[in-house]
Design a protein that fits this description.
The protein is 47% helix and 3% strand. By secondary structure, it is mostly helical. The chain folds into 2 domains: 2-29; 34-113, DNA polymerase, domain 1. The chain has a two-stranded parallel sheet. It is elongated, with a radius of gyration of 21 Å.
Length: 118
């Protein structure tokens, strides 16, 4: 009888480890999900930069596509706003771009580099 309880214990430990491993794998998923809402397939999306941020004041249209919810039209609008009014000083400055509201800005915020020097 003790062997049965011991085996069940080991099975439960194994299942717990498996669940923890799967949780760790799915926790790494947000970088790939950065493309959701942009209308682009993750398979063809621009990868997130090595440091995980996008320099909004120096990025080109393709680099801006990494930001959540940013497609080609919104990337162009960001570039147009930057050209027209100069660099963005604060993340909230992006709300001057038509199509960027509070929720989209909140999703972008962790990936934004607002520095004004390259």
């Amino acid at each position: 009888m003790k062997k049965t309880g011991s085996i069940i214990g080991w099975v439960l430990i194994g299942m717990s480890l498996l669940c923890c491993s799967l949780s760790a794998i799915s926790a790494k998923k947000p970088a790939a999900d950065a493309f959701s809402g942009s209308g682009r397939s993750g398979a063809y999306a621009t990868p997130v930069p090595p440091d995980g941020t996008v320099s909004v004041n120096f990025a080109g249209a393709e680099e801006l596509l990494v930001l959540p919810g940013v497609g080609e039209t919104l990337a162009s609008a960001i570039l147009e706003e930057r050209t027209k009014n100069g660099p963005f000083h604060y993340p909230e400055d992006l709300m001057a771009v038509k199509g960027i509201g509070k929720s989209k800005l909140a999703a972008m915020r962790p990936l934004l580099d607002m520095s004004e020097e390259e």
